[in-house]
Design brief:
Strand content: 25-35%
Order of helices and strands: EEEEHEEEEEH
Structural class: alpha+beta
Strand order of the largest sheet: 4-1-7-6
Shape: globular
């Protein structure tokens, strides 16, 4: 029997002044959540009737204290985790306003390739590969 899919909006925030390798934001999962301490791209579940952009804007404001501008659909990925089956809707975000506040006690880190934070959530690994492919980066995407 196939498990139901939970739709999740995920933001790939890129620094607007970046040149060369991609620079993007990762956040840690807060204590009390599944995979606590693992690093991921920020976002959260869609509410019924909510668009991916609306969910992303809501989640990033609730979790990080920022207000995003436009987001562009980028990729989708279905992940089967032990606790849930999720469809990750990745949107790129290049503009936002406000100071970052870690409202759930999580951490944040601007990263480039190879990523230096660990452990990384399994659903984040393919995204690092996509970023590497776009940038022509051929080394491992995770630091040793």
């Amino acid at each position: 029997m196939t498990r139901p899919i939970t739709d999740v909006a995920v933001g790939v925030l890129r620094r607007p002044d970046d040149a060369g390798l991609p620079r993007f934001l990762l956040t840690s999962r807060p204590e009390g959540k599944v995979y606590a301490g693992h690093w991921e791209f920020p976002g959260g579940k869609l509410e019924p009737g909510e668009s991916v952009h609306a969910a992303l804007a809501r989640e990033l404001h609730e979790e990080l204290g920022i207000t995003i501008g436009a987001s562009q659909p980028w990729r989708e990925l279905v992940m089967d985790y032990p606790h849930a089956r999720v469809r990750l809707h990745f949107h790129t975000v290049h503009a936002w306003a406000g100071a970052f506040e870690m409202r759930e006690g999580q951490q944040m880190a601007w990263q480039t390739l190879p990523v230096t934070v660990a452990p990384v959530l399994p659903g984040t690994l393919p995204v690092l590969d996509w970023l590497a492919e776009e940038a022509g980066f051929t080394a491992p995407t995770l630091a040793a």
